[in-house]
């Protein structure tokens, strides 16, 4: 890369914070750490690991990421420093202190504090005046600077805020010591031209604007997050807040892969360069999709399954004659060759270990490696070619159900009979704590998966509501790995539990409005019924683990 | 809607042409007609129905759409005229004549002819000079105007063409009688500013530019199709070429719902108004997704399952206090309330019929209605609430397997035994042509679905390769409808058939490069194994139907 007279584009990834706010997505600590490691290898500059005050679970996750991923240098040799760990905090001292406590051990750390500045938010949500808003913002930044040197401030709903008032707030927080100012288009309403003009206006009219980094944070409600972010870059933005696959609330956040590849393919158009290892995009996209259960549509730009496939004869002919006629990015640039044969049933431990290293799963313990190798062997037995996609799915499955979390029940055996009438399932579970082996059967009117779920409910002696059930096929062919993700809650349909005494605030808890714990489970198998069974039991084990914690007097944990 | 001093934005839908070029998507004629009817109700101005010269199947589909959908006025009362049926044609007389023959019976019709104008395409693909390019374009438009009054011309790869040469070509085709000029960014490379500037430059420097409608056709390779199209509108574009869900080759085309809703939510920003019935967006999005097998990711703007869901406590609180804090579009505006209860097991024929009418499936024959009602009753028996989403999935299923296509085999019964070891399936089929009932069993190493597919292969006596296998769950809960779509070809893995004597040209056939027929099948059922069985048999019936046609001496048909 030849770099002259250009600024570096700083990549601030918020997959684990804003991305994890996608409806139905709940990542466990192990899952978050795996994603964080991959983001570090990818070359992300700043990783927003969570919102520590939201729950004990969020705090623990941010702390473990700060401790375990904060110091890593693997894949970052060229960048020369580890990833910065950021935590989110409202503009109140308790949030900021809690955020600092979570990130304290990271070699590089940032506190990201925010406060709404639009009149509609001040009036209806915060019920404060503009003056109080400025005071609160300054106080928050001042306090954060007593803890760390790297402080980011975001005026929430900047897109609908009065621009001159925004300049007042921003000038004040720069003076208070903020080092990065982030301008969110919280509701995804701006047109690219409008967003770019707003950035230009703010940079021109904010006192001390040349002392800070300006950052863009766009939402995709009208499908314009990438365009708005790029328009920002043309007008002075040097940090972009993005997520892998563009996941996030509603229609999501800006997709990292789209912004980076736009800059990558237009070196003369943008005043910035990037230091992301683009060849890892496809893999990390699949990992995030597996663990979050958020499907990537085939026509998704850059990382969709079809992104590099040419169907029509005219295009195929063009590509054969000269690649440039229809290709602006080669699939290799983003690592989109994961359907390649990687391993077969005769592949040994050495080959398997070397593939894992390539995929960034090189740091498994010997025990974890053995579990992964056994799963691989079982899979290789039932399908001829084990692809990179399959391995990522298998390993995601292992991360989701891995040690360090309590596994109360494991499957001993499963038998299903189904057909054109009712389905019957017989399930045998082992309780790993007591050693008991339980067996029972149930019928399902809607097919074998319902039968399995009902049999498991009988065995664990709980009423479970299924809130979400997603199936996707990884790879092609009948032996494609089926991936199932489920979300459950305890209780029967009408009886939502209302014990919210553990909530940290009345309204700011992640599940406010519902006030009940939900549990996510994930399973992968070439047999779709077994994948569903694994996912369901995975979620139930999490529910049981959380119950024991609560009995032991811990705070409510968002699992 | 108050309309003053604004031009109407003309919506040109190409879901059935460029959208159907998505890898792995092949729609049957019945499926295309169903989508076309819904597009007409939606208020689309021009419907590109296909590329008639590509195959006999394409020709037949365009002709039936011209005949059956061309005259419809349902839902178009406010627009005052039926939908214009367009067909695509290369800039050669045979294509243009064939296109005219297909659309001839539509009350309003358009020929859309195209020719590449970038040097890279002229040199490497067409191997002609710039002078020859102008001559060929003028000749094509002149000939098309002898057949119809409405002629659109597209300079392919305009984004990388020399702009002055483009003006020369465009001035010449205006003089030859073109009424719409469409400027494609074929490879999705342009930045919004660049695309807008190009449009402005072309309109300023093309002779007679005020006599024609200027049209945008953008691709989404960098995630910027919507932004480029909108930038075009700000610079003089008055027709947009779009698809539902943004489906299309590689990363797809511009999504209609995104462009229309950007205009809808920014009445003061854009110099245009639209006449689309936005409340139908969600339904038609689901219909296209079901029939094409192209999944819509949950974080897709406007039509994604999460597009209107708020997860974080802060946002939920904001929404409860004042909807406007986080909502720029109400779910009702785009019809995103399909999870509502619509029908239960006690609902009768009248209620069912009235729901079908609301969903735009009101024109079923009495026989088709009876089949649909029976499927509904079966479903209602296994789940409490039958939602709008379920009905769309059921009806899509019926469209896919409906009468008018030969159904050789039907399922008599199915029995599956599976579990922690091998799966076994016993399948009983009836051959509707001979009346024979066949039964056989097979085992599947990868689970029950493989066992079913292998048993069916034995029964029909064919080697089938499975090229694609997708599962999605419609709705939530364990009784969600499973939708399976498969793509198959005849032969064992290595033996791709090479008889391409029926290809219309050496390189332009849709399956050029593969030269083999592929068949798509679709099935929906709350039992995932039954859904897979239906999909597989649906595809096999199409394969068999096509074989009989070929034996009867017909041309190769893209099914």
SSE arrangement:
The structure is a homodimer of 559-residue chains.
Chain A: E1 7-8, E2 10-13, H1 29-42, E3 46-50, H2 56-68, E4 84-90, H3 93-103, E5 109-116, H4 119-126, H5 130-147, E6 151-156, H6 163-176, E7 180-185, H7 192-205, E8 213-218, H8 225-234, E9 239-242, H9 256-265, E10 272-273, H10 281-292, H11 313-321, E11 341-343, H12 349-358, H13 366-382, E12 386-387, H14 388-400, E13 409-419, E14 423-431, E15 437-444, H15 448-460, E16 464-474, E17 481-490, E18 519-525, H16 528-551
Shape of chain A: globular
**What portion of residues of chain A belong to β-strands?**
15-25%
Specify the helix fraction band of chain A.
25-40%
- Assembly state (oligomeric): homodimer
Domain Pyruvate carboxyltransferase (chains A, B): 9-282
InterPro entries (chains A, B): 2-IPM_HCS-like (IPR050073), 2-isopropylmalate_synth_dimer (IPR013709), AIPM/Hcit_synth_CS (IPR002034), Aldolase_TIM (IPR013785), LeuA/HCS_post-cat (IPR054691), LeuA_allosteric_dom_sf (IPR036230), LeuA_bact_synth (IPR005671), PYR_CT (IPR000891)
Keywords (chains A, B): Amino-acid biosynthesis, Branched-chain amino acid biosynthesis, Leucine biosynthesis, Metal-binding, Transferase
EC number (chains A, B): 2.3.3.13
């Amino acid at each position: 890369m030849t770099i002259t007279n250009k600024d570096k584009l700083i990549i601030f990834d918020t997959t684990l914070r804003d991305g994890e706010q996608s409806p139905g997505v709940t990542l466990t600590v192990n899952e978050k750490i795996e994603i964080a490691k991959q983001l570090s290898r990818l070359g992300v500059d700043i990783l927003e690991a969570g919102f520590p005050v939201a729950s004990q679970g969020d705090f623990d996750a941010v702390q473990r990421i700060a401790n375990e991923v904060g110091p890593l240098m693997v894949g970052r040799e060229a960048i020369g420093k580890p990833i910065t760990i950021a935590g989110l905090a409202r503009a109140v001292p308790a949030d900021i202190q809690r955020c600092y406590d979570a990130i304290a051990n990271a070699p590089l750390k940032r506190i990201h504090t925010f406060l709404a500045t639009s009149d509609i938010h001040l009036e209806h949500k915060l019920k404060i005046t503009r003056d109080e808003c400025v005071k609160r913002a300054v106080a928050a930044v001042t306090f954060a600077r007593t803890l760390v040197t790297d402080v980011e401030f975001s005026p929430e709903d900047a897109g609908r805020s009065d621009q001159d008032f925004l300049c007042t707030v921003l000038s004040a927080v720069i003076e208070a010591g903020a080092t990065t100012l982030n301008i969110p288009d919280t509701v995804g309403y701006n047109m690219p031209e409008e967003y770019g003009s707003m950035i230009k206006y703010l940079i021109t009219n904010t006192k001390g604007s040349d002392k800070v980094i300006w950052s863009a944070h766009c939402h995709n409600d009208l499908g314009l997050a990438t365009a708005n972010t790029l328009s920002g870059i043309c007008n002075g933005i040097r940090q972009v807040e993005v997520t892998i696959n563009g996941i996030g609330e509603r229609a999501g956040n800006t997709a990292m892969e789209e912004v980076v590849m736009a800059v990558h393919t237009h070196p003369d158009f943008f005043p910035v360069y990037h230091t992301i290892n683009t060849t890892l995009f496809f893999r990390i996209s699949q990992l995030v999709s597996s663990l979050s259960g958020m499907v990537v549509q085939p026509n998704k730009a850059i990382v969709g399954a079809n992104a590099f496939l040419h169907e029509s004869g005219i295009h195929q002919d063009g590509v054969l004659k000269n690649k440039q006629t229809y290709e602006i990015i080669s699939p290799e640039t983003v690592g989109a060759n994961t359907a390649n044969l990687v391993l077969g049933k005769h592949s040994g431990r050495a080959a398997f270990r070397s593939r894992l290293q390539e995929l960034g799963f090189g740091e498994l313990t010997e025990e974890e490696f053995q579990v992964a190798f056994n799963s691989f062997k079982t899979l290789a037995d039932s399908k001829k070619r084990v692809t990179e996609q399959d391995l990522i799915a298998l390993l995601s499955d292992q991360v989701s159900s891995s040690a360090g979390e309590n596994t109360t029940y494991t499957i001993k055996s499963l038998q299903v009979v189904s057909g054109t009438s009712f389905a019957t399932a017989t399930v045998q579970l082992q309780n790993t704590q007591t050693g008991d082996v339980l067996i029972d059967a149930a019928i399902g009117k809607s097919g074998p998966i319902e039968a399995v779920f009902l049999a498991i409910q009988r065995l664990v002696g709980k009423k479970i509501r299924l809130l979400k059930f997603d199936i996707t096929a990884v790879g092609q062919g009948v032996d494609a790995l089926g991936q199932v993700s489920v979300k459950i809650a305890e209780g029967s349909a009408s009886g939502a539990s209302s014990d919210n005494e553990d909530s940290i605030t009345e309204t700011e808890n992640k599940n406010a409005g519902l006030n009940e714990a939900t549990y996510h489970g994930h399973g992968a198998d070439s047999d779709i019924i077994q994948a569903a069974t694994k996912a369901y039991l995975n979620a139930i084990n999490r529910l049981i683990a959380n119950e024991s914690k609560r009995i032991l007097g811990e705070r409510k944990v968002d699992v």
